[in-house]
Amino acid sequence: MKKCNKMIQKLGIKITGTGSFLPDYTVNNADFSRFIETDDAWITSRTGIKQRHLNVSGTNLSMSEQAASRALEAAGVKAGEIDMIIASTSTPDYFYPSLSCLVQNAIGAVNASAVDVSAACTGFVSALDIARNYLAVGSCNRILVVAGEMLSRQVDFTDRASCVLFGDGAGAMVVEAADKQYASYLGAKGESLDNLLLYCDCGYNSNNPFLESDCGNTSRPQRIQMDGKDVYKFAADIMPKAVNALCNKAGLALSDIDLLIPHQANIRIINAAMKSLDVPMDRVYVNIEKTGNISSACIPVCLDELNKANRLKSGMKVCLVAFGAGLTFGSILMEV
Known about the structure:
The structure is a single chain. The chain is of the alpha/beta class. The protein has helices spanning 2-10, 29-32, 40-47, 60-75, 99-107, 123-136, 160-163, 228-250, 267-277, 288-291, 298-308, and strands at 12-21, 26-28, 51-53, 84-88, 113-117, 143-150, 168-178, 182-188, 196-197, 225-226, 259-262, 317-324, 328-335. The chain has eleven helices and 13 strands. The chain has a five-stranded mixed beta sheet, sandwiched between helices. It has a four-stranded mixed beta sheet with strand order 8-13-12-11, sandwiched between helices. Strand 4, helix 5 and strand 5 form a beta-alpha-beta unit.
């Protein structure tokens, strides 16, 4: 039994291909000053963001399809060789069908099952962990993990504290089982749901004759509602805890981790978390300056950038850590 447990713990994942897509249309900080009271200095000092990409003419699917196709090309595999597609999104084009089904059809992955994950900004970490578990038990040989987000469709552009944070984009990764070290640590704090939420009243039947009241309550705001201070406190606290818990679970010291890739929400959150961990920023990958917060797509976009720059070296131990609405959090340690 001990031998079996050790074998499962060591069975990790191999990244065979990565891909990403960021829309061509970019919005700089100065552009916001046209309609809200703000400027580049205010936004940069509080968020670390200089620009973000907005999808003004496409869909979530169009971005996700591009990212998925690029990941397949990088992996050198055909869509028909994918056994499963796991997609993460908080901004679907449809309530149903799922984004994973739409991607399956778009790329021609006729042999793949399809499932979506809804964990907000933690979505990619959760999806990747699910993929690893399917691979570990031998249910699948090759899985495509996709994260596509269009936060611009949910933003309240009259709220200067939040509208400057978000962007659009997609990232994808093809993974297979490998005898490499792997560990994960996921959790949630559901009692804090009011800290970050978006109602989904729109799209429900508002004239149902069997209801005593209007179930499509349009008086509730249809934009992102966020308590920035509470989210900051949660994130700055939970990310170090999630990384430390992950190291303890994996039997590693923090110094054994070669690279940390945090969710790109706010540079002040990242700095606070890394300071708490006493991890120098040269061991942390940050691209928030040019992308903003693209929710669950942040981390796979970072991985694609690193991969294209040949910075993911064999044997490296990489830590992914994220937090999101729910409130959710998760961390993954994987050996490249």
